[in-house]
Amino acid sequence: MGTDSNIRLQSHTEELFARCGLLIFTWIIVSIPWLINIDSVLEYLIIKLDPCEVECLNLYQPEKWSELRWLASAILGFATVMPLMSHQFWSFAKPGLTSSERKLLRISIILIPFIFLAVSYFTLFIALPYLFSLGHSIQSDYGFVAKYDVINLIGFSTAIIWMEMIVVFAASVMIASGLTGNMDSSNANWWRIRVYGIVIMLTLLSFYERTTNGLLMALSSILLIELLCRPWTTKAPRYQIGMEEKFDSRGEIVTYLHVICGCKGQQYSTLNFPHTNIENVCSQQDKQDDLLRILMYNQPDNILLYQCENQQFVNKFQSLISSTKSKIIIK
Predict the structure, then answer these.
(1) Phi and psi at residue 329, in whole multiples of 5°?
(2) Which residues sit opposite 245 in a β-bridge?
């Protein structure tokens, strides 16, 4: 981006490892108090989820109870360090983001925890108890004597919460992208490939023992996310992007992005090839960030810049995209 500093990759790597080490150490320390009091927490959760008026819960897999205690402590510890994790992630990513991407990250960091906590509370203390009670009453009406496994009861609830976290995270990122102007109909597929790819990977890894269930849950999650984000994935783009393709001397296809800056005040009304109008891109930081996003999404071989007399901007922008295949040509 236009305000990014020239920092070596080694420095970024060292900073990333230092921040990750701090988070892991804090996560372990914070999980210890939860582990000490985890029996009380699980007992309270079981009371809320128990659908029976008389005792009907049993522990058929005692060895799984110890595993569940450790897992629950780790999850609660992770939830406790989420504010620190958000702060560390923001501090690490902020220098390399454009202004709109900073807004996207800021909204996501605030939006995701609040939505996730609200959805989790509704699921654990309202929706699941009601569904368990409804299922229990149906079995009682048929004359069955219900005996439920505590491990399966909590395991099912944990799986639901985990899928909700994935959906909330993915939907919040895409909605925040739309709200901040980073996503519209022109680049929606770019976002879909990355966000939905992560959703599918996490879902399949979470339910690797039952691949069919994992695929069904992944497809259901993607459908729900797509419905929630529909207003932004169909939003008209800010710029009409037109790419020109030509064959070079070796017969390879070369793509051209024609960008009209307009700082000279001339008019190119008779251009007979696709072009994009980004007025005063050489002097306005937000327009430069828009151009960077266009290059990231479309990856042209050459950028032809018209009506621009700011050579300082051209030199700076060329250095920013030096690691890509694109190069700037002034017209």
Answers:
(1) -125, 125
(2) 255
Could you tell me which of 239, 240, 243 has the C-alpha nearest to residue 300? 243
Domain extent listing, the chain: 9-182, 243-330
Continuous segment of H or E residues that includes residue 325: none
Residue 86 Rama label (left phi>0; alpha psi -120 to 50; beta): alpha
Sign of CA dihedral 182, 187, 192, 197: negative
The separation between CA 288 and the C-alpha centre of its own chain, rounded to angstroms, equals 24
Nearest to 58 by CA among 175, 130, 149, 135: 149
Instruction: Identify residue 113 by its one-letter amino acid code.
Output: P
User: What backbone phi and psi angles, to 5 degrees, belong to 213?
Assistant: -60, -40
**Residue 272 vs residues 71, 275, 307: alpha-carbon distances, Å:** 63, 9, 16
Joined together, the tokens standing for residue 22 give: 């701090």
Integer Cα distance of 305 and 229 in angstroms: 34
The answer to whether residues 34 and 77 touch, using CB atoms and an 8 Å cutoff, is: yes
3 state DSSP class of 31 = helix
CB atoms inside a 10 Å sphere around CB 240: 11
CB within 8 Å of 125: residues ≥ 6 apart: 48
- Two tokens at 305? 């810049």
- Write down the H helix ranges in 55-95: 62-80, 82-93
Q: What is the pLDDT along the chain (331 residues), one digit of tens a residue?
A: 444 445 565 676 788 788 889 999 999 999 999 999 998 988 898 888 888 877 788 888 878 888 888 888 988 898 888 888 888 888 887 877 777 778 888 888 888 888 888 998 999 899 999 998 898 888 888 878 778 888 888 888 888 888 888 999 899 889 888 888 888 888 889 899 999 999 999 898 888 777 777 888 899 999 999 999 999 899 888 777 777 778 877 778 888 888 877 666 555 555 667 777 777 777 777 777 778 888 877 888 888 777 777 777 777 777 767 666 777 777 7
Under 8 Å between Cβ of 161 and 117: no
